[in-house]
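Could you help me review a protein record that somebody else here produced? Do not assume that whoever made the record got everything right. The record follows directly below this note.
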Amino acid sequence: MNDNQLLRYSRHLLLDEIGIAGQERLLKAHALIVGAGGLGSPAALYLAAAGVGRIALADADHVELTNLQRQIAHDTSSLNENKAASAARRMRAMNPDVQVEPLAERLLGERLDWLVAQADVVLDCSDNFATRHAINRACVAHKKPLVSGAAVRFDGQVSVFDLRDSEAPCYACLFPEHSEEAEMRCAEFGVFAPLVGVVGALQAAEALKVLMGIGQPLKGRLLLYNALDAEWRAIKLKRDGGCSVCGK
């Protein structure tokens, strides 16, 4: 690290669990974030601020006025701009050390598979189950840690699915494909503005822990947050031996 980086990341360097070694791991890391909306906004901004060296950010949508109630990577000047491009501009302004690759596309098939294979960690900040399951399949295939978040109404959830651990569940163990829940569209429901900030920031925290190899990530646990009642709850998850994605 150069002198500017030592100063920029000094509050990380003061933490015994991180120090210079941990920060250097972040500077060499590659994260893939799918979705630059409510969850992707805080997640992307915090990963950039923390110094994750390379961040690919994918979103095919454009900024609309209804987004500005909660999607903090964008502002009024971003209206009608691609969300990945808008967020990337903010990320670069925040930290020019970081290499940001905005992808104005919906990731599918071989393209998604290739991008997941290149990443050290994947953050699912999407808003539909079809995309979530596609990301999960790619992460299982390449044994890449997946940090998954969701937020609707006043309820949020975060978990880490890491198939590098042979006993760890995948996303489909919790939400099987073609289940009744998978037919719901997140965009059809209201959402409390600060909730996506809480969940997205937690996704960033879990991704940073995974990249640095510190603490206890939310592997095998689902963390639930109800913003209306200010209640947190954690549920233990088990691998489903009959899972169509990761089952043996």
